[in-house]
Amino acid sequence: MSTPTAVPKPIAGTSGWLDDRLGAGNFLKRNMRKIFPDHWSFLLGEIALYSFIILLLTGTFLTFWFKPSMGHVIYDGPYEPLKGVMVSEAYASSLHISFEVRGGLLMRQIHHWAALLFIAGMMVHMLRVFFTGAYRKPRELNWIIGVLLLSLALFEGLTGYSLPDDLLSGAGLRITQGVAISLPLVGTYISFFLFGGEYPGEDVISRFYTLHILLIPGILVALVTAHMILMWVQKHTQMPGKGRTEQNVVGAPFYPAFMAKAGAYFLFTFAVLAGLGTFAQINPIWLFGPYTPADISAGSQPDFYMGFLEGSLRIMPAWEINVLGYTIPLSVIIPALVPLGIVMTGLALYPFLERWITGDNREHHIADRPRNNPVRTSIGMAGITFYGVLWLLGANDEISANFQISLYATTWFGRIAIFVLPAIAYVVTYRMCLGLQRKDADIIGHGVESGVIQRLPHGEFIEVHVPPAEDIEAHMRGKEAIPMIDGAEASETDGVPPRGLRGPVGRLRARMSQAYGGEKIPLDAGHGNGHGDGHGEHHAAIGSGTGDDKSLTH
Amino acid sequence: MFRITAGRRHPLARYAVLLFALVLAGSVYTLTALGDQSADAAIATGKVDDVAEGEKLFEAHCMSCHGTDAVGTAAGPTLVGVGAAAVDFQMSSGRMPAATYSGAQALRKPLPEWVTPEKIRQIGAYVQSLGGGPTVPTKADVSTEGADMAKGGELFRANCISCHNWVGAGGALTEGKFAPPLNEATPEQIYEAMITGPQAMPVFNDSVISPQEKRDMIAYIVGVRNQTDPGGFGLGRIGPVTEGLVAWIAGISALALAAIWITAKKRQTND
């Protein structure tokens, strides 16, 4: 590396000119060296960000040729099996983009794949934030923005999916209308308002078009910006480790290290999307055919992110109530609103519920390892299982047809599994978390197997254990007890519980706090030589190995 | 050889071995599964004693379920009036004889040794002699010469895809029944299925869908299934289910690996 001598004149001149007018120098000086912590899972949100950028670019391309009109035309393009068929202008223009516009099909496919990765990226990012507790104070608002982004993205996906006006998306639109019209009192009005009259009407495509390309993306851009600014200002959380505290951030500076990594990751995302768009056919609307309300296909499915709603609709028994001559179709309202409500509301409220239960009002900048908060992790896994069962059952006809399982059997499996499997997932996860905590305690207490077998003078063989690597130990020691409300432990034994823990709600809160909080498996418990001796030489381990410590002798 | 040995403890070695084993197993399966005979239902020129021959074959292979004189038993329906078209459809697709079948409906399977186009024709002639019924379509009946694919597509979407899916990929029905994929069905079998209504399928006779319209539909089904997917791999053409799987398994996995790889690269510092 040569030492830099002087800034070249063209650069110094330009930057000086800009700095005099924008005063950007100070801002950049402060922000270009911003430190970002390094962990692979911190990049998952960027999948969504970069997919969103690619969505904006490819989407703009598509608008140049797409005609958001339900006016009827006779298809007269190069796709022979549809020649002479009456289709909507939206469908005809989508076929035009696919078959006649240069690069059009590639753009359409990248756009659609990017939509899938946009939402999948948001999901994995959200799971990372959830399981590491990165939503805790001061980041609750950014978490809420994230939940809003996810909800809006689902709606953005739904509107975009409907635009080509093909038979498959029409089925989704029909279900949307079914949900709208099933709402008590206002259903009919909402449906007529949305579709400009009787379904399907002539308006819905152009209305969805405005929502899809203007309104929702506008809000998305605003929220994404807010999300990024808040993340920037509040700084990123970091995983526990050597030298990492609640007051610092350990990592690489934005410029040049993090910028290079982020740039490379954008290129990776772009490469994956371009690769999928090139090699994997998606949404072949020419095979589906144009939408007519009279036709419906077997295997009609929504895109994956709507699959859980499809599944809940499919496993719902056909219940309905008739009140005073009005029908309330529970078989549509419940599956459409309840799982969505559980998932989205649950996500939005979780930080506040957790704070209420733990009474933890401190700021957190060090992320939890999922094992160290077993209840949260188990709730998360139960939620994933709940969502996963619904998602799986959304494809039950394909599962049935392709694996020769009776469709009714899959439905009944779903009806039972939706209640049983989340409970099983909770228990299993909880035990796994405790098991992993024990493993950590074991490593801190006894060190790790060195692979060296020693023979003692009296003939016994032992395996020498060595202290864990410094960084790994620091990572493990980042664990701290989950807080409990003051007095929650005492409330049952002592006579008078503290204020706020009285009454049924207070007692419930105290009990939940006790279950949620506390240190279940202390890292240094039960080993007199545990704490300081972690750094001791191996004879210390041998010494304890001959006595009470069975894990050292094999 | 030395280089391979040196690399065997490489972190990627186990994946390479796994990949190699998978490719090997896949190739062997592909090669051995190639000898799949096609169910060609071409009918040879007729013989005078087809009915008598057919009766003998019927008694040997079909009577245990379909009963004496094909009047049916608890195990199998009567064949009086189903016609030679039904016999040809069921036998040429391997659904009948269904000695080992259990489940909601008979499956397409490879033909037994003895089932040849001639034997099928003879049994068909016998069943036809019992009470008439739809006859086997001629080459002209299923010819797609001059057929209107687009018109056939509209009829296909209106009448068939609610069970068979938009490209005839098949679909699930109630009570364990299913609509089979149309990928292997010959034009004759498609035609026969429409006029005889096998298993759960309704009958689309000539007054519902004219012979010309049937030819249009066959042209559409065969044309679309032979079409090269313009967008890359078709992913089974079953729509968002496989697309979602690819997005997660290929897309998110690849990007997660990329993230791990990128963050594993640490700057070398001297402090």
TrEMBL record, chain A:
Q: Which cofactor does it need?
A: heme
- The residues covered by the Cytochrome b/b6 N-terminal region profile domain are 14-240
GO terms for biological process?
A: respiratory electron transport chain
Composition bias, kind Basic and acidic residues: at what positions? 530-540
Return the protein name. Cytochrome bc1 complex cytochrome b subunit
Q: Which PANTHER family match?
A: CYTOCHROME B (PTHR19271:SF16)
PROSITE patterns linked = CYTB_NTER (PS51002)
Q: Which is a Gene Ontology cellular component entry for this protein?
A: plasma membrane
- Where in this protein does the record put region Disordered? 520-554
* Known EC number: 7.1.1.8
What's its catalytic activity?
a quinol + 2 Fe(III)-[cytochrome c](out) = a quinone + 2 Fe(II)-[cytochrome c](out) + 2 H(+)(out)
* Leading EC class: translocase
Superkingdom to which the source organism belongs: Bacteria
Keyword Heme listed? The answer is yes
Q: Which molecular-function annotations from GO does this UniProt entry contain?
A: metal ion binding; oxidoreductase activity; quinol-cytochrome-c reductase activity
